Amino acid sequence: MKKFLLIIFAVVVFLIFAVIVFDGLNSVIKSNQSSSSKKETSSDIQPTINPKGVDNSKYAEYSPEKLANITTDKTILFFKASWCPTCRVLDQDIQENLDKIPDDVTILAADYDKEKELKKEYKVATQHTLVVLDSNGQEVQKWTGILSLDSLIETVNN
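The structure corresponding to this sequence follows.
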């Protein structure tokens, strides 16, 4: 009789454990499905460069022609990705403070995911990399992770 009760007890404990595990896995799966459907894709996030009425000579999207025609002493290539939260922070700060960009500085926003040859040329390995070029297109400085235009300008001027 004791053996029979022990077996019944073990089966009940096993069933309770199985229900708890199954319910936990089911809620994790549902959570992952709902969060993956809410994730922003790169096509959902459109970078805001040069809103109407803003001087686009200081902050513009990268193109080989724009880089070749830069007349300022310092050009900054900002390798940003639409999916990168820190890139968005810096982009927004630049947009809100365009008037703080010195006249001798031009910032070109290069799409980290699309500009593969440019990344190779300047040995860029991660998004949110900034490369300062001289008037001949030669790299002067490179760093990653600055979050404000003020910090960016301060770093470039030192």
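The longest helix spans residues 2-38.
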